[in-house]
Amino acid sequence: MTTASVALPEKVTRAPLGRLLRAELRWVLRRPRTLVGFGLLALVPVGLGLMMSLADFGGGPIGGPPVLASLLGNGMVLPLAAMTMAMPLLMPMLVSMAAADAIAGESAHGTLRGLLIAPVGRTRLVMVKAVGVATVTAVAVLVLAVLGITSGLVFTGTTEFTSLSGTTLSFADGIGRVGVAALWVWLQMAAVAAVALALSSFTDHPLVVLAATMGSLIVFTLLGTLPDLSWLQPALITTGWTSAIDVVRDPMVTATLTESGVRALCYIAIGLSITVARMATKDT
């Protein structure tokens, strides 16, 4: 009498999370369009430093928002001004492109299907993609902050931080203010990236994601200027984007910064939830 052998199914081994993250970060940070975006962002603080230097040499004032008007002879404000100028257009465009390429771009090139059938897990895949986009966002903010501080020191030669209230803060306090602003800007752009990532999971065309995200930001900005829609403004992602100026005040006003930060966290949670739900049923 022979005993029939029963073949047991092989255990599926999941790919290590660390290896997935390293591969994703290498891919997103070496992408040519990402590097071009970093280069364009680097021009913002350098250009502001040159403008500040020329205005100081010519003795003329710097027009525009208060954060720009306070640049003259106040180099530590330069990174804050650079982040303020890049928030409406350059940074949302960069993070939207990264989010569009993360899912819609891979789907368009046919590589997403291989990831979906691989032993990765749909939720883990979304988290890996989200970390990649968040890293691009963090590097973009660091480019503005670090080059802003460097340009401010080079073009003014001073390490003092003069607030809008007229008080002079130390270099350490100025670095702390820049760090708070950088964290706040990263949070706002991460919210934009989460929305773009959700849109990216519904299409195979990255340009559609970019156009929809940027178009939505423009519409939200316009809606935020209408007094009759004041009841809607607390729900708009762009509400409070001008509150970075509060970092330059002494004492620093944190109410609007906190409110917009909580709003950004809500958008991140909603965007990632939609992405996970969509990826759970996505085949290609």
UniProtKB/TrEMBL annotation:
Q: List keywords of the entry alphabetically.
A: Membrane, Transmembrane, Transmembrane helix
Record has Membrane as a keyword: yes
Spell out where the chain crosses the membrane.
35-55, 67-90, 131-155, 175-200, 207-226, 261-280
**What domain of life does the UniProt record list for this protein's source?**
Bacteria
Q: Which Pfam families match?
A: ABC2_membrane_2
Q: Would you tell me the protein name for this molecule?
A: ABC transporter permease subunit
- Origin organism is Allokutzneria oryzae
Q: Provide the organism lineage as a comma list.
A: Bacteria, Bacillati, Actinomycetota, Actinomycetes, Pseudonocardiales
